[in-house]
Amino acid sequence: MPPSPTCHSCGTAHPPGATQCPRCGASLAPAAPPRSTPAMPAGPEPSSDTLHHAAAWLSLQHALRVIGAAALAWGALHLLGALLVIPRLHPLYVPSVP
Questions:
Q1: How far apart are CA 24 and CA 14, in angstroms?
Q2: pLDDT surpassing 80 at residue 77
Q3: What is the pTM (predicted TM-score) of this model?
Q4: What is the pLDDT of residues 18-74, one digit of tens each?
Q5: DSSP label at 10?
Q6: Would you put residue 17 in left (φ > 0), alpha (ψ -120 to 50) or beta?
């Protein structure tokens, strides 16, 4: 007679037909077998033109992001400078008496 299988979680022996451990309640289902095929089937290799096009597109997107960020920073500095020049917002503003 083969030995009773044990629970992988707590080590308790259980009858051969059990689906759940009587002590801890863990499932006694066997683990899924490892996949023998890759998750994504292999396709044709991309051509060098495709790779160059993708790289150029990504570098263009990166350049536009950098230019956009620089333009926003430049605009923020100009706005800050304009606010500091407005006389009524300047801390040294002294109104003229008529």
A1: 11
A2: yes
A3: 0.37
A4: 788 878 888 877 766 766 766 676 778 888 898 888 888 888 889 999 999 999 999
A5: T
A6: alpha
Q: Is the Cα torsion angle 44, 48, 50, 52 positive or negative in sign? A: positive
Residues 90 and 84: beta-carbon distance below 8 Å = yes
Residue 55's nearest CA partner among 46, 67, 66, 45 is 46
Q: What would the two tokens of residue 70 be?
A: 């620089």
Residue 36 is classified by DSSP as S
pLDDT of 76 higher than 90: yes
Q: Where are the alpha helices (DSSP H) in 1-98?
A: 48-85
Residue appearing with tokens 């400078």: 81
Q: Where are the domains of the chain?
A: 47-91
Reading the block at residue 91, the tokens are 């801390």
